C-alpha cells in the first residue's frame, strides 16, 4: 500500500521547494549578487517560497490527519518505528518554525514581506534592532538543523530500500527497477 497521491505530491513538492529555498538562502549568505535590485528579488523569492512551505506543511498535516500513513512491510521493530516518528515530527516542526523565524527576522530588520511582491504577510514582531540579530542567528541554526535532519532522513530512506529491502520508499512513490509503479 502506498501513501495517497496527494501525500506523495506534497512530499516531493516540499522536497523540491525546500531545496530551492535552501540554495537561494546559501547564495544570499555566501555570494550575494552586487546588483541591489536582483539581490532584493532573490530575497523576495527565498522568503515567498519559504512562507509557501509553511502553508504547504499545514495543509500536509491536515491531510495526514485525515489520511494516516500506510503500514510498512515487513513491520519495523518498535524502537525503529519510534525513531522514525520522532524524526518526522522534528521535520514537521522545523518546516513550520524556520519560515516563522525567518519572517520575524526580516520584519525585525525592518523589511516587511509582500509574498511574490503581491500579498502582504503579517508578522508577530515589527522593527526591533535588539531582536533582529538573534532571530537571524536562530534562523541560520534551524536551517542547519533541518539540513542535517533531511540528510539523515534521506539516508534512512535509502537504507530501508537497499539495505533492509522493505517497502518504505516505494510507499512514497519511488520506483524499484524492474517492478512497482513510480509516482
Ligand atoms: C523552510 C524555509 C526556509 C529555509 C530552509 C531557509 C533557509 C535559509 C538559509 C540556508 C539561509 C542562509 C543562511 C543564513 O544566512 O541564515 C537563509 C537566510 C535568510 N532567510 Fe531563510 N529560510 C527559509 C524561510 C525563510 C523565510 C520565510 C524568510 C522571511 C520571510 C526567510 C528570511 C531569510 C533572510 C532574511 C535570510 C538572510 C540571512 C539573515 O537573516 O541574516 N527565510 N535562509
Ligand atoms: C528534502 C526534504 C525532505 C523533507 C522535508 C521530507 C520530509 C518528510 C516527512 C515529514 C515525512 C513523514 C511523512 C508522514 O507524515 O508520514 C517523510 C516521509 C518519507 N520520506 Fe521524506 N522528506 C524529504 C526528502 C526525502 C528524500 C530525498 C527521500 C528519499 C531518498 C525521502 C523519502 C521518504 C520516505 C520513504 C518517507 C516515508 C517514511 C515512512 O512512512 O516511514 N524523503 N518525509
List keywords for this structure.
mainly alpha, 183 residues, two-stranded antiparallel sheet, 4 helices, 2 strands, binds protoporphyrin IX containing FE, Fumarate Reductase Cytochrome B subunit, 67% helix
The level of helicity is: 55-70%
Taken in chain order, the helices and strands follow as HHHEEH
Model regions low in confidence, pLDDT < 50 over at least 5 residues: none
User: What's the total count of β strands?
Assistant: 2
CATH topology: Fumarate Reductase Cytochrome B subunit
Tell me the structural class: mainly alpha
The ligands found in this model are: protoporphyrin IX containing FE
Radius of gyration: 19 Å
What order do the strands of the largest sheet run in, or round the barrel if closed? 1-2
Level-2 CATH architecture: Up-down Bundle
Tell me the fraction of residues in β-strands, as a range. Answer: under 5%
Number of helices: 4
CATH class: Mainly Alpha
Termini Cα gap: 13 Å
Topology:
Elements: H1 5-31, H2 36-66, H3 78-108, E1 113-115, E2 119-121, H4 131-164
Helix pairs in contact: 1-2, 2-3, 3-4
The site of one protoporphyrin IX containing FE has 25 residues, from α1, α2, α3 and α4.
Explain this structure to me?
It is built from four helices and two strands. It has one domain: Up-down Bundle (Fumarate Reductase Cytochrome B subunit), CATH 1.20.950.20. Helix 1 (5-31) packs antiparallel against helix 2, helix 2 packs antiparallel against helix 3 and helix 3 (78-108) runs antiparallel to helix 4 (131-164). It is mainly alpha-helical and 183 residues long. It starts with a helix and ends in a 19-residue tail after the last helix. The structure holds protoporphyrin IX containing FE (2 copies). One protoporphyrin IX containing FE is lined by residues 18, 21-22, 25-26, 28-29, 46-47, 50-51, 53, 95, 98-99, 102-103, 105-106, 113, 136, 139-140, 143, 146.
